[in-house]
Amino acid sequence: MPDTHHARAPSLTLRDVTLRYGADAPVIDRLSMELAGGESLAIVGASGCGKSTLLSAMAGLRPVDGGVIEWSRPVRSSFVWQQLALFPWKRVLENLTLPLVTAGVPKAECVERGREMLAELGLEGLEKRFPAELSGGQRQRLALGRALIAEPEVLFLDEPFSALDALLRERLQDVLLGLEKRHPVERIMVTHDIAEAVLLGERILVLAAKPSRVLGLIRNPVYTPDPSPEHRTSEAFYAVCREIHALLRGAESAEGGAR
Ligand SMILES: Nc1ncnc2c1ncn2[C@@H]1O[C@H](COP(=O)(O)OP(=O)(O)OP(=O)(O)O)[C@@H](O)[C@H]1O
Question: Best mutation site among 17, 27, 29, 157 for ligand 1, i.e. most ligand atoms within 8 A of its Cβ?
């Protein structure tokens, strides 16, 4: 399945993309890059470097102020934010199946696919609860399930796990990778966590602010869609983390020197 997914997946091209707010200096300044079909991208950088702004533009949620963002064809996409955007007055199953309902899928099929997804998420038995009656990790699973239930081709994630403690964050990363085996998707994710970028980014875009610039677009040599339990603590994994850390620290000291 992943092979056909890659063959069919849409590719993304950015040419000289500039993004700014008002008359301020650009947040993203003439960024050019390409992402092949099916490749997953992690965007990492310090707070305020423009990660969320860039993600929104890639998702078509905001216009560009210069240059071009082009998908090879129209894509079906879905988004997960840090705030999750679950509907507090809707029960778990209703939240989960909302994308199917709004797409006009018949009710019986919505319920059937919703129950299948609940099982994949490990949330069986919780379908009648409201989001407020779930733990943080369960809410996060629900948001991931809702994002994938309508089988999007591209999944945009903006720091979805940043409010979680380190171990729960790792569990949710595993849940995400597990879900993607059954629901293949091209994932574009923003994170400020270097290890998360190295785990989840087949390509990693490293950004700096002030001045806004690209520090690197790395082809991640340790990326795997199916990491072993030892993967995160392997020397090779740490080596890529160190490389990104050095890029970010180098940019910080250059910025400090310029002040
Ligand atoms: N609506 C807005 N109006 C004006 N400036 C904004 C707006 N949204 C973001 N900015 C500014 O644009 C810059 C980039 O913001 P953005 O949220 O894209 O960064 P980020 O890298 O995602 O940050 P963080 O990791 O803190 O979420 C910041 O300096 C921010 O203050």
Answer: 27
Q: How would you classify residue 50: left for phi > 0, otherwise alpha for psi between -120 and 50, otherwise beta?
A: left
Helix (H) or strand (E) segment spanning residue 218: strand 213-219
What is the CATH number for 203?
Answer: 3.40.50.300
Confidence (pTM)? 0.91
Residue 230 lies in a domain: yes
Distance 20 CA to ligand 1 centre (A): 10
Ligand 1 center–CA 53 separation, angstroms: 7
Domain that holds residue 236: 2-76+185-258
Q: What is the pLDDT of residue 1?
A: 44
Q: How far is the CA of 48 from the centre of ligand 1 (A)?
A: 5
* The pLDDT of residue 41: 96
Q: Is 50 in the pocket of ligand 1 (CB under 6 A)?
A: yes
- C-alpha 111/C-alpha 117 separation (Å) is 10
Packing angle of the helix pair 136-148, 92-102 (nearest 10 deg): 20
Could you tell me which of 76, 178, 93, 156 has the C-alpha nearest to residue 130? 93
pLDDT recorded at residue 2? 47
ipTM for the predicted complex: 0.96
Residue nearest (by alpha carbon) to ligand 1 atom 4: 21
Atom of ligand 1 nearest to the CA of 55: 18
pLDDT attached to residue 258: 52
Residue 134 lies in a domain: no
162 within a domain of the structure (yes/no): no
Where the chain has pLDDT below 50, the residues are 1-3
Residue 193 Cβ inside 6 Å of ligand 1? The answer reads: no
For residue 50, tell me if it sits in a domain. yes
